[in-house]
């Protein structure tokens, strides 16, 4: 019985391959469309795309075009070719404004951009673009069934940008450019007031101010020590039981000790 089933599967596989090869070679666009549609429905997106690309120019303006171009766009998306799916979905939305697939296509086109967003440590150009595209979708379709998902994706993308901004600001502390670190971390906290990295940012701002102060020439030290003391206060005010309490208290003790020389 197993042998018979295996033979049947093999026959169907060979038949399917032969059908695809015939469709590739034929000049009959109707055969290509029929085969491409079957392949698409079976989830064989790469092969379907190859046939769709062959016949797309011939079907422009024809009744079958709307369904063809929708499947073509979706095949790219399902095949994880997000750059191409973004382009083709946007083209579909522009070409078929009254299509019942228009809203879905607009959403998937915008979502395709988000799929190209890289990890936070790399360039975030695609992330910015994805946020813009998704926001346009939300503004265009405020009652869409995809509204909540679009908002969730935007939130995830903005979190990535937030992490990028924090790491960039913190980097100045890591390379001992303490003046730049203070400015960058200050700007970060201002730009992202509700950030989950606020405690960390305030600590590294304190550390930067502290390092800058204790390594200063005498005529600049007093003012910088007082600035560092204010940074300590900001951290403790934000979170009295901060995870950096031990380090912060040690810095404060050194700051107070150094300040005594200016009160004599």
Task: Give an overview of the whole structure.
- Keywords: Cell outer membrane, Lipoprotein, Membrane, Signal.
- This is Lipoprotein.
- With 264 residues, this protein is mostly helical.
- The chain has a domain at 176-264.
- The protein contains 12 helices and no strands.
- Helix 10 runs parallel beside helix 12 (245-259).
- The longest helix is centred in the middle third of the chain and has 28 residues, at 147-174.
- It starts with a helix and ends in a 5-residue tail after the last helix.
- The model is unreliable at 5-15 (pLDDT under 50).
TL;DR?
By secondary structure, this protein is mostly helical. It is built from twelve helices and no strands.
CA-to-CA gap between the ends? 100 Å
- In angstroms, what is the radius of gyration? 30 Å
Determine the mean pLDDT.
92
Strand segment tally? 0
Q: Helix and strand succession?
A: HHHHHHHHHHHH
Total number of helices: 12
Helix content: over 70%
Assign an overall shape.
Answer: rod-shaped
Structural class: mainly alpha
The unreliable regions are: 5-15
Please summarize the sheet with the most strands: none
> What percent of residues are in strands?
under 5%
């Amino acid at each position: 019985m197993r042998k018979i089933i295996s033979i049947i599967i093999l026959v169907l596989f060979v038949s399917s391959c032969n059908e695809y090869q015939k469709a590739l070679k034929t000049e009959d666009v109707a055969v290509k469309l029929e085969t491409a549609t079957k392949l698409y429905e079976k989830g064989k997106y790469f092969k379907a795309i190859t046939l769709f690309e062959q016949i797309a120019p011939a079907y422009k303006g024809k009744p079958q075009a709307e369904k063809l171009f929708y499947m073509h766009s979706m095949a790219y998306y399902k095949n994880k070719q997000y750059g191409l799916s973004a382009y083709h979905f946007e083209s579909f939305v522009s070409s078929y404004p009254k299509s019942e697939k228009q809203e879905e296509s607009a959403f998937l086109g915008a979502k395709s951009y988000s799929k190209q967003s890289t990890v936070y440590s790399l360039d975030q150009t695609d992330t910015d673009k994805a946020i813009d595209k998704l926001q346009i979708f939300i503004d265009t379709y405020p009652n869409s069934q995809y509204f909540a998902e679009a908002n969730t994706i935007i939130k995830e993308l903005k979190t990535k940008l937030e992490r990028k901004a924090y790491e960039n600001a913190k980097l100045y502390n890591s390379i001992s450019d303490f003046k730049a670190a203070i400015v960058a971390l200050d700007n970060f906290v201002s730009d992202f007031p509700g950030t989950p990295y606020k405690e960390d940012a305030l600590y590294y701002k304190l550390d930067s101010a502290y390092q800058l102060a204790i390594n200063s020439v005498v005529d600049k030290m007093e003012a910088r020590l007082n600035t560092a003391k204010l940074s300590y206060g900001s951290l403790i005010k934000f979170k009295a039981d901060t995870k950096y309490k031990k380090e912060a208290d040690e810095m404060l003790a050194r700051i107070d000790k150094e300040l005594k020389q200016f009160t004599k």
